[in-house]
UniProtKB/TrEMBL annotation:
<keyword id="KW-0808">Transferase</keyword>
<keyword id="KW-0328">Glycosyltransferase</keyword>
<dbReference type="GO" id="GO:0032265">
    <property type="term" value="P:XMP salvage"/>
</dbReference>
<feature type="domain" description="Phosphoribosyltransferase">
    <location>
        <begin position="33"/>
        <end position="156"/>
    </location>
</feature>
<dbReference type="InterPro" id="IPR029057">
    <property type="entry name" value="PRTase-like"/>
</dbReference>
<keyword id="KW-0963">Cytoplasm</keyword>
<dbReference type="GO" id="GO:0046110">
    <property type="term" value="P:xanthine metabolic process"/>
</dbReference>
<keyword id="KW-0660">Purine salvage</keyword>
<dbReference type="InterPro" id="IPR000836">
    <property type="entry name" value="PRTase_dom"/>
</dbReference>
<dbReference type="Pfam" id="PF00156">
    <property type="entry name" value="Pribosyltran"/>
</dbReference>
<comment type="pathway">
    <text>Purine metabolism; XMP biosynthesis via salvage pathway; XMP from xanthine: step 1/1.</text>
</comment>
<comment type="subunit">
    <text>Homodimer.</text>
</comment>
<feature type="binding site">
    <location>
        <position position="20"/>
    </location>
    <ligand>
        <name>xanthine</name>
    </ligand>
</feature>
<protein>
    <recommendedName>
        <fullName>Xanthine phosphoribosyltransferase</fullName>
        <ecNumber>2.4.2.22</ecNumber>
    </recommendedName>
</protein>
<dbReference type="InterPro" id="IPR010079">
    <property type="entry name" value="Xanthine_PRibTrfase"/>
</dbReference>
<dbReference type="InterPro" id="IPR050118">
    <property type="entry name" value="Pur/Pyrimidine_PRTase"/>
</dbReference>
<feature type="binding site">
    <location>
        <position position="156"/>
    </location>
    <ligand>
        <name>xanthine</name>
    </ligand>
</feature>
Length: 194
């Protein structure tokens, strides 16, 4: 997605060979116009698919997910990282292993918000090692709903997540795919390498 790549080039910062900082438009400050474009692009990439619900993970997945949900006119559910006070029973949970923090965390969704009849588009801001996406898939499949596909704003193609998910047969649509990061340079996977 050209606009997103431009934004990453203009406002993204390669903090290291593996970490891209995008807090000016995605992870802290949010650019609503860009999020709207992102939502439209997700809808376009899955336009032949049935989608009844969008599932994402708090916090940075919510903005792009809501934009797609607005256009599709379907509810957006975000998995929580912390247990809510008002919501203790009836949770579907899964675990996310963080390589960077070397810890396992639980994420959860209330079971009342997913049913076996749902066709779910999973959306997240980053795809790195794929652990968050795998946990979201696990939650959706525990309810016997169908995972229609996975929409990612920024995929770090040099990490394993993309291959893991594609090898499982899911349709993954990443709007920007980073080939490499480093020394203040950000390289994208070109469209023909897809
Ligand atoms: P990992 O081992 O797969 O790298 O996952 P980890 O749990 O360490 O990731 C921590 C957070 O960092 C996640 O967001 C993930 O989406 C995000 N992330 C992974 N790689 C990058 C990157 O290169 N740049 C940025 N900006 N984020 C990255 P989170 O903790 O769930 O945060 P949020 O959704 O509340 O913003
Ligand atoms: Na994040
Ligand atoms: Na995230």
């Amino acid at each position: 997605m050209e606009k997103l790549q431009q934004k990453i080039i203009e406002e993204g910062v390669a903090l290291s060979d593996t970490v891209l900082k995008v807090d000016k438009f995605l992870n802290h400050q949010i650019d609503p116009q860009l999020m709207h474009e992102i939502g439209k692009e997700f809808v376009k990439r899955f336009e032949n698919k049935k989608i009844t619900k969008i599932v994402t993970l708090e916090s940075s997945g919510i903005a792009p997910a809501v934009m797609a949900g607005l256009i599709l006119d379907v509810p957006v559910v975000f998995a929580r990282k912390k247990k809510s006070l008002t919501l203790k029973d009836g949770l579907i949970t899964s675990t996310v292993y963080s390589y960077t923090k070397q810890e396992t965390n639980e994420i959860s969704v209330a079971e009342k918000f997913l049913s076996k009849d749902d066709h779910v588009l999973i959306i997240d801001d980053f795809l790195a090692n794929g652990q968050a996406a795998l946990a979201l898939i696990d939650i959706v499949e525990k309810t016997n709903a169908e995972v229609t596909g996975i929409g990612i704003v920024i995929e770090k193609a040099f990490q394993d997540g993309g291959d893991i998910l594609r090898n499982k047969g899911y349709q993954i649509e990443s709007l920007a795919r980073i080939k490499s990061l480093g020394n203040k340079s950000i390289e994208f996977v070109s469209e023909k390498e897809y």
